[in-house]
Amino acid sequence: MITPMSDLSCAINLIRKYEGFNEKAYPDPTTGGDPYTFGYGTQFYPDGSPVRKGHCCSKEKALEYLFHEINLIETQLLKLNFGLESHMLQALISFVHSIGWESFLYTSIIDHLELENYESVTHEISRWIFDADHKVIGGLLDRRREEIDLFLQGVSNIPDYANSVLLTAFRNYTASAKQVNAIRQLEEAINPYVLSEFANNFQTEEDPWGIEEDDAYLLFGR
């Protein structure tokens, strides 16, 4: 059996946790067909041929295919020569395995790594949580949080909003009708005691809310 070239246990555990094991090939949810996936997120055999409808694999073969895939990803990332710490490399291996190498090349992550701008790297990772209809996928949200936490191990001076949906939302709030509606839906779903505690904790002595009357109407009504 193929084994990883180095200790990539964190990446392997992350991928196995969120991909899960599938003995039978299943279709892409967007196309209803190709690409088919089985094992731990495998879409291509080591020889490059695609997984097809009706194909099956054992757990042993699934691990072999997974190790082959992460070896390829590790090699590609190391060729970029960023001198990444092991935890950063493993976080990126999981991320690349999730979105694919071609998609990774279209992100801004490589540019941010060149500048050692790790805050922007994690911000870019956190954006990849949507399906084809731009709806948030809970499993991807959890996976990105774990990938970001792994990437940032021992890294200081990174704002907490790097892996927080709410803090990122506040940071990018523009009071659009869609954002206001989303906030209202969230408010209705939150326990009123929790909401009250948040309102009290969120206030500051200098400026209790920092919003104009019109904004308050948009957010909370009258």
Structural key phrases:
Lysozyme, 222 residues, 11 helices, mainly alpha, 2 domains, two-stranded antiparallel ribbon, disordered C terminus
Give the helices and strands, then pairings.
Elements: H1 9-19, E1 22-26, E2 37-39, H2 59-79, H3 86-99, H4 101-106, H5 109-114, H6 118-126, H7 138-151, H8 165-171, H9 177-189, H10 192-202, H11 213-220
Antiparallel strand pairs: 1-2
Helix pairs in contact: 1-3, 2-3, 3-7
Walk me through what this model shows.
The chain has helices spanning 9-19, 59-79, 86-99, 101-106, 109-114, 118-126, 138-151, 165-171, 177-189, 192-202, 213-220, and strands spanning 22-26, 37-39. A two-stranded antiparallel ribbon has the order 1-2. Mean pLDDT is 83; it is low at 204-222. Helix content is 54%, strand content 4%. The chain is built from eleven helices and two strands; from the N terminus they run H-E-E-H-H-H-H-H-H-H-H-H-H. The protein folds into two domains: 9-163, Lysozyme, CATH 1.10.530; 173-220, no CATH class. It is mainly α and 222 residues long.
Q: What's the overall geometry?
A: globular
For the termini, the CA-CA separation is 66 Å
Would you give the CATH topology of the largest domain? Lysozyme
Low-confidence stretches: 204-222
How many DSSP-defined strands? Answer: 2
Number of domains: 2
Percent of residues in helices: 40-55%
Biggest sheet: strands, sense, closure? 2 strands, antiparallel
- Return the CATH class of the largest domain: Mainly Alpha
Q: Total helix count?
A: 11
**Could you tell me the mean pLDDT?**
83
Write the H/E string, N to C.
Answer: HEEHHHHHHHHHH
Whole-angstrom Rg: 21 Å
Which band does the percent of strand residues land in?
under 5%
